[in-house]
């Protein structure tokens, strides 16, 4: 069974930084695309970032380019989302996902989510 455990969320002031972690277990890391989605209150869920080790594929949503980066520690089966220059509109619950294959479609496994709150 695939399990994803997020950590690193919290409250930060605008302009600050957070690093989210997603520890994955029950899967072969090379076979999955690991991604991040977020959902703010009253808004639709949106894709944030995606990492696929086998293809060296990295995706960052346009509104987050230059501020967010995704990386991995393959020995730990952990993916990180470094978020810099945070804005109040980044406030949301951030979810880690794992999709078999090369793309983060959000159709596979999901973590429980971690709250990120950015104050103005």
In words, what does this structure look like?
The chain has 120 residues and is mostly beta strands. 0% of the residues lie in helices and 54% in strands. The protein has no helices and eleven strands. It has strands at residues 3-7, 10-13, 18-25, 32-39, 46-52, 57-60, 68-73, 78-83, 92-100, 109-110, 114-119. Strands 2, 4, 5, 6, 9, 10 and 11 form a seven-stranded mixed β-sheet that branches. A four-stranded antiparallel β-sheet has the order 1-3-8-7, with no helix packed on it. β9 and β10 (109-110) form a beta hairpin. The radius of gyration is 13 Å and the shape is globular. The chain starts with a strand and ends with a strand.
Estimate the global geometry from the Cα principal axes: globular
How many DSSP helices? Answer: 0
Span of the ends, CA to CA: 40 Å
- The SSE order reads EEEEEEEEEEE
The proportion of residues in beta strands is over 45%
- How many strands in all? 11
- Rg: 13 Å
Helix fraction, binned, reads under 10%
Q: Tell me about the biggest sheet? A: 7 strands, mixed
Structural class: mainly beta
**Unreliable parts:** none
Mean pLDDT: 95
């Amino acid at each position: 069974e695939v399990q994803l455990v997020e950590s690193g969320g919290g409250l930060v002031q605008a302009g600050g930084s957070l690093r989210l972690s997603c520890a994955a277990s029950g899967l072969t890391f090379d076979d999955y695309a690991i991604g991040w989605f977020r959902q703010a209150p009253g808004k639709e869920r949106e894709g944030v970032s995606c990492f696929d080790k086998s293809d060296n594929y990295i995706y960052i949503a346009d509104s987050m380019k230059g501020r967010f980066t995704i990386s991995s520690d393959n020995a730990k089966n952990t993916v990180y989302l470094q978020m810099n220059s945070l804005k109040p509109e980044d406030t949301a619950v951030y979810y880690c996902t794992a999709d078999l294959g090369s793309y983060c479609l959000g159709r596979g496994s999901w973590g429980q989510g971690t709250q990120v709150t950015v104050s103005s």
